[in-house]
Structure formats: structure tokens, C-alpha cells
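Async update (no meeting this week)

Hi team, since we skipped the sync, here's where things stand on the single-chain job. The sequence we agreed to prioritize is pasted below, unchanged from the tracker. I ran it this morning and attached the output directly underneath so nobody has to dig for it. Comments welcome in thread, and please keep replies under the output.
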Amino acid sequence: MFIGTSHAQAGHQAEGVHQSAEALLSQARLRPTSHPVTLSAEIRGAEALLPLIVSIRKNEITYQLDHPEETIVITMEPHACLLGHTQHGLSSLMNNEERYHDIRGTGVTYDDLSLDFLYWPHPRLAGEETLRGLKTTIIELIPPTDAKTPYGSARLWMDQKSGAPLRMEGWNHQGKLLKRFEMIAVQKIDGVWMLKEMRIETLDPESGKAFQRSYLTFHAL
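Output:
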């Protein structure tokens, strides 16, 4: 999950507050790879700290893990997001079961690192809300009917000024909240604002309380 926006993009987005949900999502899909860069990163879970090297290139984000070596590859196509990995010299796309596996005890799944929900069809505008002092547009998304996912719907809060997603929530098929992603801090690298830290919470659908919190943090090399 990676977010970056230049001042020029922010100004353009401010003029387009009333764009359609699909237009807003299209901009968010392009945003992660609009500025090629390589960063160090880490995932901090309750019982694990996992260092990573993250490379952002045109239409592709890779997460490099060591001990054992593994590369997670997220490829963004015009109408789909592909999640794959390379292990022991063999590359393959992840199946629906693999993508929801926990990554080395961090509490973060492979799917959490992907941008798959941004490609769900038929998004709709669901109002506006002020989030931590920032005006946001809320977008509701429904997965494709043939998708094998624990999520029945998702919500996305997008900053009206920058166009960056500030919060994302995944809800199960019974309308109970399962997971929340929240931008905690941003940083400026090479003149571009990028994500510095995101909190990922897994919630008990019955109580609505978070029982697991993990943090994804990026650092300039």
C-alpha cells in the first residue's frame, strides 16, 4: 500500500472534488507508481518486525524480503491488479487462498499490500466527511460477483485536496467491519509527498473491537 502525490496533482484534485467515483479511483490507481523510487520499509506486528525493500516503478510495486528470500509483486493493469510472488527462483500469481495468508507473523496479509479494492467495479459516491480536519469524499465499493474474498464491501475516504486515500475499511458479507487501514503520517521525498506510516487493524466482527494492530512504515534510503 503506497501513496504519493505532488503539489501539481494536489491542485488538480482540488479542482475536481465533484468528479465521479470512477474518476477519483482512476487517479488513485495511478498515484502509487507516479514517482519511481526505492525505499526501505518495515512491518511491525505485535510479535514480529519484518524489514523490507520496496521498489516503485511504472505500474509495479515490489516488496523484497530476506531470510528466506521472497519478492512480492503487485502489477497494476488498466482494469485489474495482479498479486504475485517469487520464491526459490519460481514466479507465480497468488491464488485466492495464498493472498490472505499472514506474512511471517506480522498480522498483515499479502492481500493487505495489494490495491485490489481500487479495481472493484461500479464504485459509488457515499457522501463527504471531515477526517482529522481534512475534507474527504467517501466511496463505497462492492467486489465482483465471482470474487472469492472475505469482504462484501469496502469504503474509501479520499482527501479532497490531494486525492490520497486516508482511510480504507473492509466489511464482511454480513455488514460487519473486518479490517481498517489508516494513514498515520506522510513524508516528502524528492519533492513528492508519500506515505510514511499506515496502521492496519483487524477487528472482531461481533464486538467491533480491534484485536490486532500492525504498522507499515516507509523510510528514504
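Quick observations from my side:
The longest strand covers residues 177-189.
Residues 21-30 form the longest helix (10 residues).
Reply here if anything looks off.
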